[in-house]
Design brief:
The structure is a single chain. The protein has 18 helices and no strands. It is mainly α and 325 residues long. Helix 15 runs antiparallel to helix 16. The radius of gyration is 19 Å and the shape is globular.
């Protein structure tokens, strides 16, 4: 009888939805607000983990895609992220198949941003140098892999990454910044989306790294489970200070993720309204226009992905200045 690969690999990749609140409790101790927050985070974590193991068990598109499409629309993007995790592990074990590229350029194309993040979530556990993996991915979106990498390390290796501010030596160049964007996203979950804990944690980091951390908070605030009200989002934006454009960029990236998922979310609209004064659809349109404005997406002194992000930040600053005038 064939033993499912997901079951065989569980000792190597011991991921479970329960791990997320356990890790948060290890870091901050028991917190009253965590139970309520994790009740809202739990469907996200469980969808990610379940889809990861199902992809390991049977990655055939004819089986995998109908399952992904059966997931509730508000969680479907997370399911594709889990599929990216599973396909990347399979490519690491059986590199001759190249399942991830076939999926990204095939049935997963509409969710490619989230698939790449999923790939990054398992990359720290696979052999080989991250730079070699990145070199094989889309030149513009490859940095989302490093975002996923940063999320994993920020959450599960928090003693090094959060407390000691260590960045893996294998990550270089712009990858360091994308890594920090993922670390910022991880803070949203590990702090239980608590405003005070988020601010206090970011303030321990060197000033040069805080912008990318705040950008990750912007992504999580607008895309992840809606656990914040208008006042809390406003408090986060104000606390970001000079890094408010980074929060705005993160929320714009999240609006693209939400657009890809094909399912509007009230908390994404709320975050975009607080930060941009517009709903998620309008912010996504701004982000798309910023991409079209790039003269050469893959050229220039900085990666196209960062030039795109910088352009979004400039648009936010211009809009904010107009409102204030």
């Amino acid at each position: 009888m064939r033993i499912p690969l997901g079951k065989l690999l569980k000792p190597v990749f011991p991921l479970s939805a329960e791990k997320f609140p356990e890790m948060a409790a290890q870091r901050f101790g028991a917190q009253q607000d965590m139970d309520k927050t994790w009740f809202m985070f739990e469907p996200v974590a469980r969808t990610l983990v379940d889809t990861f193991y199902r992809t390991l068990d049977d990655p055939r598109h004819s089986v995998l895609v109908p399952y992904l499409e059966s997931v509730a629309p508000e969680l479907r993007g997370i399911a594709y992220e889990g599929a990216g995790m599973g396909l990347t592990v399979l490519d690491g074990l059986f590199p001759y198949r190249k399942r991830l590229p076939a999926f990204v350029h095939g049935p997963g194309a509409a969710y490619r941003c989230l698939v790449y993040i999923g790939a990054g979530l398992v990359l720290p556990r696979l052999p080989g140098h991250p730079a070699r993996f990145l070199a094989r991915q889309d030149p513009f979106l490859r940095w989302l892999v490093m975002d996923g990498y940063g999320f994993y390390e920020g959450f599960f290796s928090w003693r090094d990454v959060i407390e000691r501010h260590v960045t893996p030596k294998t990550i270089r160049g712009y990858g360091v910044r994308a890594f920090d964007q993922g670390v910022g996203r991880s803070l949203w979950f590990s702090t239980g989306a608590n405003v005070e804990r988020i601010i206090a944690t970011i303030d321990t980091f060197p000033a040069a790294r805080r912008g990318d951390l705040w950008s990750g908070i912007g992504v999580a605030c607008a895309y992840a489970a809606g656990v914040m009200d208008r006042g809390a989002i406003t408090a986060l934006l104000e606390a970001a200070g000079t890094h408010r454009p980074s929060v705005a960029v993160g929320s714009a990236v999240a609006s693209i993720f939400r657009e890809q998922s094909g399912q509007p979310a009230p908390h994404t609209d709320l975050a975009c309204d607080v930060i941009w004064g517009a709903d998620a659809g309008a912010v996504a349109a701004i982000a798309h226009e910023a991409g079209r404005a790039l003269a050469s997406p893959d050229g220039g002194s900085a990666p196209g992905y960062e030039r795109w992000r910088s352009r979004i930040g400039e648009v936010w600053q211009h809009r904010t200045a107009e409102v204030s005038a």
